[in-house]
Write a structure and sequence with these properties.
The complex is a heterodimer.
Chain A (H helix, E strand, L loop, with lengths): L11 H35 L2 H16 L2 H11 L9 H27 L2 H10 L3 H16 L1 H14 L11 H12 L2 H31 L3
Helix pairs in contact in A: 1-2, 1-4, 1-7, 1-8, 3-4, 4-6, 4-7, 5-6, 7-9, 8-9
Chain B lengths: L6 E10 L2 E11 L4 E5 L6 H8 L7 E6 L2 E2 L6 H12 L2 E4 L11 H13 L3 H14 L15 H13 L5 E5 L7 H16 L3 E5 L3 H7 L2 E6 L2 E6 L1 H6 L4 H15 L1
Parallel strand pairs in B: 3-8, 3-9, 6-7, 7-8
Antiparallel strand pairs in B: 1-2, 1-4, 4-5, 9-10
Helix pairs in contact in B: 3-4, 3-5, 4-5, 5-6
The chains are: A mainly alpha, B alpha/beta.
């Protein structure tokens, strides 16, 4: 059997729909991982121990177990206790929380690296601890971790293929559907890979743009 | 002007473990008075200044501003609330400026008034323009701190503090980190504040500036006030041998 890429255009609509779902789930999960990551970081650094410890346990759970298992647990497992989430939502929560834990680690060290004088200046003006974090420390910390967070988000894009196993018709699952009807795995997997690569390039371009925009405020 | 003290420090003491950095310090500053604190590094002068707004709380003693005790012993929550309130009345300028690098000059000046005084966007803008005009940096309103020289940064830092309409201004070696040619522009702004009768407490290494601007000078060494008096006495005719030695060394190191 020879390779024949002419079968691809007929399924382009399926594939492009998959691309859209992949972008949707990546963007949604990235936003969740970013904001929840900041929240986790602040809790890890500043909350009293009886709040911090449960969060720590939760972090270990997410860092120490496979993402695939986490997705299964959220989508199939939670139904048993009455939480029936749509596959897309389960995927966003799973990916989002998983990467939030990694982002939190980055943001924590960035928060600790913000100069002490910043906090002093802010507190001296009369800002409270929370206001100082919210308006002075965290914005600077986040600005400093944009590059490594960008790398995490590209990893997130690639891991988004895992949500195909809980039935979200994203790019990988779309390719599989096309393969099921044509028996042409090589052609469609290569096509899917090409689209992942293009999305990747776009994400890197966006990241560079953000980095340029914040360059002035250093 | 009344005779009652505007800022008052009573029996201030502070120690880190067994190290005593402040011992039995008393200070009264009247409204509109300008006091310089001089002394060798490690003498406790910055620590004393930072005790006034509770950045480095005292181990014992009292700090008062206009009849309100700043370092009140209160339960944690109330203490935080109290301190956040009183700090709004105490402007502070740091050696290393500590401008917020992620905000423009405008953002630096308007952050606290908007958050704490409920000033509207338009009013805050006007406030920023006024304060910047005062320090002579109107054209820098949309610049980021990284685009300013050291002297400009410090003038913005002063404008930021003034925007809160403080009752007293604390200067912690405000010109020590500046290149020599940039010191004068900051001194000019401080002189201008002095002419407007802003109450100021200034920790400084610049004896010339202290002599020309201040009403009173405190010489500190090893955590105590060795001598205090009008600048012409402290600088020209000090009583204490320690003051004389310090000033002589200082002049030597500056003319070397």
């Amino acid at each position: 059997m020879t390779l024949d890429f002419t079968v691809v255009p007929a399924f382009l609509d399926v594939i492009l729909l998959g691309v859209l779902w992949t972008i949707a789930i990546t963007v949604a999960a990235a936003l969740v991982s970013f904001f929840v990551g900041i929240f986790f970081a602040v809790v890890a650094l500043y909350a009293p121990w009886f709040i911090r410890l449960p969060f720590r346990a939760f972090e270990w759970l997410f860092m120490g177990t496979p993402l695939l298992l986490q997705l299964f647990l959220i989508y199939f497992g939670l139904i048993q206790i009455g939480i029936d989430l749509p596959a897309f939502v389960a995927g966003v929560i799973g990916l989002g929380l998983h990467f939030a834990v990694y982002n939190s680690e980055l943001i924590q060290s960035a928060i600790l690296a913000v100069d002490k004088g910043q906090t002093e200046a802010s507190r001296t003006l009369g800002l409270s601890r929370m206001q100082t974090l919210r308006y002075v420390v965290v914005p600077q910390a986040v600005r400093d971790v944009i590059p490594p967070i960008g790398n995490n988000m590209i990893a997130l894009l690639k891991d988004s293929a895992l949500v195909s196993v809980i039935g979200v018709s994203e790019l990988t699952l779309s390719a599989q559907q096309a393969i099921g009807r044509t028996f042409r795995p090589f052609e469609f997997y290569v096509t899917a890979a090409a689209f992942y690569y293009v999305i990747n390039l776009v994400m890197e371009a966006v990241q560079r743009r953000i980095e340029r925009r914040i360059a002035a405020s250093r | 002007m009344t005779d009652t003290a505007f800022v008052e420090i009573r029996n201030a003491a502070k120690s880190f473990g067994r190290l005593e950095v402040l011992r039995d310090i008393n200070l009264k500053v009247n409204r509109g008075q300008i006091v310089a604190i001089i002394g060798p590094s490690g003498s406790g002068k910055s620590t004393l200044l930072r005790a006034i707004n509770e950045l480095d709380p005292l181990s014992s003693g009292e700090v008062w501003l206009e009849g309100v005790q700043i370092n009140k012993k209160l339960p944690h929550r109330q203490y935080e609330k109290h301190v956040n309130q009183v700090r709004q009345d105490i402007g502070m300028v740091f050696q290393h400026f500590n401008l917020f690098p992620h905000l423009t000059v405008r953002g630096n000046i308007t952050l606290a008034p908007k958050l704490l005084k409920g000033v509207s966007e338009a009013e805050a803008d006007k406030l920023a323009e006024q304060q910047l005009a005062k320090v002579g940096l109107s054209e820098k309103i949309d610049a980021y701190p990284s685009q300013l020289s050291g002297g400009q940064k410090q003038r913005v830092a002063i404008a930021r503090a003034l925007a809160m309409k403080p009752k007293v201004m604390l200067f912690d070696e405000a010109t020590s980190a500046l290149d020599p040619e940039l010191v004068e522009e900051v001194n000019l702004v401080m002189k201008q504040l002095a002419e407007e009768h802003m109450t100021m407490i200034i920790v400084t290494h610049e004896m010339g500036f202290a002599e020309s601007v201040c009403d009173r000078v405190l010489f500190m060494d090893q955590g105590v006030v060795v001598e205090e008096g009008p600048p012409e006495v402290i600088f020209r005719n000090p009583e204490s041998e320690r003051t004389r030695t310090f000033l002589r060394k200082h002049i030597e190191s500056n003319t070397r």
